[in-house]
Amino acid sequence: QVQVVESGGGLVQAGGSLRLSCTASGRTFGSTVSMGWLRQAPGKEREFVAAISYTGGNRYYLDSVKGRFTISRDMNKNTIYLQMNSLKPEDTAVYYCAAALTPWSESQDDYEYRGQGTQVTVSS
Question: What pLDDT score does 29 carry?
């Protein structure tokens, strides 16, 4: 079992920035764990926003966030970050950290271990 805990959400004006953090624990020791972020806005389907491989050498981004969001990883702490710049009102959603017990995957279905979510609200 893998536990993930995210933090860093909040309220920001359009054009502003936020950084989300997430740490994985539990069955991570000795495992190759990819990590990523999903989001869900009210009335909309969940989106797979970004992911980073176990080594950090592979990254995935949702088209609408490319060039604005950056995912990174601290291998020593099994922690990932999502730096979100130039935020738009349409980025408003609950953001969920997720982990997959695989070195790399671009399929959100593999990211079965998910946190409770953190709210990101971007005002216009």
Answer: 63
